[in-house]
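> tool_call: predict_assembly(chains=two)
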Amino acid sequence: MSELKSAIVDTCARVFAEMARAGDDWNACYDLAAQAGLDRLLIDEESGGIGGDWSDAIAVIEESGRYALHFPIAEFLVSSAYRSLIDDPAGLITFAEQCAGRIDPLGRFSGALSGVAWGEAAEVAIGRLDGETIALRIADGERVGRAVNPAREPRTRLNYSERTAVRLEARDPIEILALCRAAQMAGALAASLELSVTYANTRVQFGRPIGKFQSVQQSLAVFAEEVTATKAAVDGAALALDNGNAALEIAAAKLRANRASRIGAAIAHQVHGAIGFTAEHPLQLLTKRLHSWRSEFGNEGFWAAHLGKAFAALGADQIWPTITQRADRNWDAERGEQ
Amino acid sequence: MSGEAAQARAPDGAAITRLRGEVRDFIRGELGAPRLTRRVNSWAVADRDFSRALGRSGYIGMTWPRIYGGGARHPLERYVVIEELLAAGAPVGMHWIADRQSGPLLLRFGSEAQRLSILSSIARGETYTCIGMSEPGSGSDLASVRTRAVREGGGWRISGQKVWTTNAHHAQYMIALVRTDPASQRQEGLSQFLIDLASPGVTVRPIVDLTGAAEFNEVFFDDVLVPAESLVGAEGEGWRQVISELSLERSGPERYLSSLALFLEFVRLCGAEPSQAAAQLIGELGADLMVLRRMSLGVATKLASGEDPALDAAIVKDLGNSYEQHVPNAIQALADIDWSSDADFVQGLALLLQAAPSFSLRGGTREVLRGIIARGLGLR
């Protein structure tokens, strides 16, 4: 990690710790995030931003995953890349996982948005419809119920009837949010592993810390492997995003994070025993998010099929050359300082 | 060695792209399109002619200083060359251990005479080595080795037995870990020797493995007399010398690429529009391939800058081995296999299914690696 990036991440870590203490106080969390300039990280310096790249942004989002925040921090940070395209709304911009319907010749959308993160709190939702990125005002839609994911993060469903949709010349937000979730999962996995190792070293049974038992050690080693692989996948996808097309790398990252979450969350709970199953223990805040995020913006089946079709279309003889050529785009950025 | 290698300029992305092109051209020219059974697990496939051709092109001993016949190239250039060779399923088994392990060990700990005597011949692809570690009573618990060397005259008398010694039947030399202090316990009192396998008293006996191949051997030392200058490095430092090279051995592309050729043939069989189940398997295996490659290259990058990422290296090996074992098993679950067929794909799958159990045994078992990871986590 570059010095600049680690300085940004360190600063954000302090902000996230404060946000975690603020709990579900929306206004306090929003103010902390705004004061820290998280919504300016992806904005150019000429436009008053911090001038960070995707690699910086994803590293910050990964860090946020460690704190089990009750706030859409990834959406808050990433939407800044879309803000100038949408007449600069004052409120929060969020994203819809699914967008079904049609846009008539007058540019009006009829259909439904689902999986809208924190829809109640946002002003605009961005979605993907038939290969186009579109923005809709939340107030134009009719809220159909109000739901939360297992981590109690609000997920809204909205129906629209002939309401103005703004077409955006912008990156596919589904890919970006999939990478954000993978990054959040990488952070939550790392924090779960740390909790588990600490617990294994302090909980004494049969006269010694349970971490001295080989079976527990082997489980935690598997967990550590999953955490390391997820982080590598997320870092690689963020670098690819800075280079332009990152479709394959993001698919691999979300797929890897999903699988790691299944394996890691199970080991974390097994190691913690009954205390980890209580509402007061912090582990459940992390594992509930892991379970929730695993389904959001593409499960294993979705990304595996997506990636598999892409590889099949390339053909057997082009798979290795493509993987190496795409990774080599980052060669100088990653190894330039040597 | 790391000090000398660090003098080589780090290649930039353009140089890496050129190098990949050169290696791919070389492989195509030398090998054409070999059968799948030759391309899977290809670092266990020995081919003297191919090793010599590689040596002539400067692809062995790439990072070693020129005075020893090396190419004075950067370690990441070597990394790219070997990952291209393994991805193509090139038969690199004959010189593999000499290039990866014995050469670097001699550069780091060997005497000038030892370096001058064999390094340039290794780099030409003409001299091969094997590593004498395991013994009948000493597998994962390597510190229990009992083969001993006793001072005699001006040299040493070596007696004992090594086992599971890959390539001993091809190699001219073994670098053996033996006990030089009979009163010592465990990791202490061990030393490394460079032993000429043509010495009187050395017997190499092949062991046929379950695939029918004989890649590993028993090696007997019946009072073998070796000169004093056979000692590699310092007497009694053998354990530390062995340990210092493990990250290099554990994180390389050979730890996840052994089944790549089968995966690619599976993609070919499925065609441009695979079924949903096949697409999902291709995507899953392809994602792991991308991520493992990134992890392995990440360790190589750290090694090249002088770090010793032992924990990361153990993680790459364990995940990589699990992956290369998973590939044939997952493909078998989906592909329609007719054992009465002599099709290349069927025979390649058959070979990998049989060879795969060895992947998480060779070079450190899964259990040993996970123990190392647990120690890195602060659990031991």
